[in-house]
Amino acid sequence: MKTLLFLISVVLSLAFNSDVWAGYVITRQFTKPGVEKGREALPHLQNKGLIAEFLDPGDTGLGKCLGYLIWREVLTAISDQSGAGVILAHPPGQERIVDLLEKNYHLAALEIARDQRCSMALWGAVWEQGEQVFLNSFLSVLPEVRGGDLLIRLKPVPGLEAEIARTRYNFALVQTNRNNLFERTVVTRRSAVLRAEPQANGRPLQTVPTNTPLAATAMQGGWFVVKTADGGKAFVDNSLVEVPPRQVEGKYNTATLFQGPGQDSRKIRTVYLDGEYRVLDMRYRRGLWYKIDLGDTQGWVAGHLVDPKFSLPAVHFMAGLYRYRAGNYRAAIKEFTSFREESYTLGDRANLATSMQFKGAAQLFLKDASGALDSFSYAVELTPFDPAAYNLEALAILCTKGQLVGTALYNLERALKLDSRNPRTLALISVLQEALVKGKHRSHIESRFESPEKLAKKLQQLREQAGLTQP
């Protein structure tokens, strides 16, 4: 495997305070597994993820740019999530990684993520054909967190649990172009120097004040190419600017359009939002605000009234994982819903199913058993070959009452037919029967089935089908 040095750049996102950034650089050499560990960045944080530079087999220069761009988009997506850290791993300087195999690169990214105690790692590959850019993206949830974050327990019965089994995601291919990726507004987060070359000692052209929106047209490494006031071009380092989504989407809702960011600004008028709108500016002021272009007018709307549109659906998926890990379940539901809407036409059935499982789990935590059941049922429809999907739907059914609950056993039976030794399925059957036999939680279990006698009989049949002995 080729020797590869990685630099780790870190940004800390803290509760809508865009001034709180923690920078960190680590040099690592990856020649074989088990190398000496590097210094951990942001050791006080438990909710961290890693973005690795995208592989670029055609040496187009897009791999390095996309690493920075997706890193910044994930930061924007979780900008209001307290205590969340995002780490970017990339080779130093202009060193390229075009010769690495995907498998080796994936292992290297996971090793960095483990070393930094990250719970997930996102990376990808890019190639260009004519004016079209093709993007593959991959995300891994580290196996070390499977027993905690991905396990859903139904109280008060001990052992009544199921898990979201998939931890590796190969997202559907995205076809786009350079303009759709890089033509966007960026906003200075402090006084920023625009330079003639994309390097720290590049010739300074002008200094622009904080909160200045700049029109970006391209990227070169970690630098945005922006238009100057005289129509020329300049470079600004990505660390000096906020990176809003290129567009936001309104979904059949009304919103008040303000002259400035904040409800204390002058109201322009009430507008009906239905479609996608170009973002002209972004500001954090008692929450997130976007300035959008409606064609006949421009104005500011509250961020919670629109949905951001990012370069890859995977950004929403990763943001959903951050929210879910933090217990911010309503925000997690919104992110996984956005992922579903952006991925639906791509035919990404397995990842769509997992997003619905996370959404369903978040709904269970919010005590929305009916909504959770709908989400888990949709996951089964998308992946009828997945035993874990049936286990999760069975668990959701056990949270409800009424005639529908009888189908919980059907789900367990389906799971067994797909995998007769599935440990979660077998555990669910054993826990249900043990509760009936020993009686400690018998009333809780029986109250969820229209016929306790049929329940006991069916459980015994399932145990015999699986070759289990009596509890």
Automatic annotation (TrEMBL):
InterPro entries registered for this protein in UniProt: SH3-like_bac-type (IPR003646), TPR-like_helical_dom_sf (IPR011990)
Protein's name according to its UniProt entry: SH3b domain-containing protein
Residue ranges annotated for the SH3b domain, each copy included: 193-241, 255-306
Organism: Desulfobacca acetoxidans (strain ATCC 700848 / DSM 11109 / ASRB2)
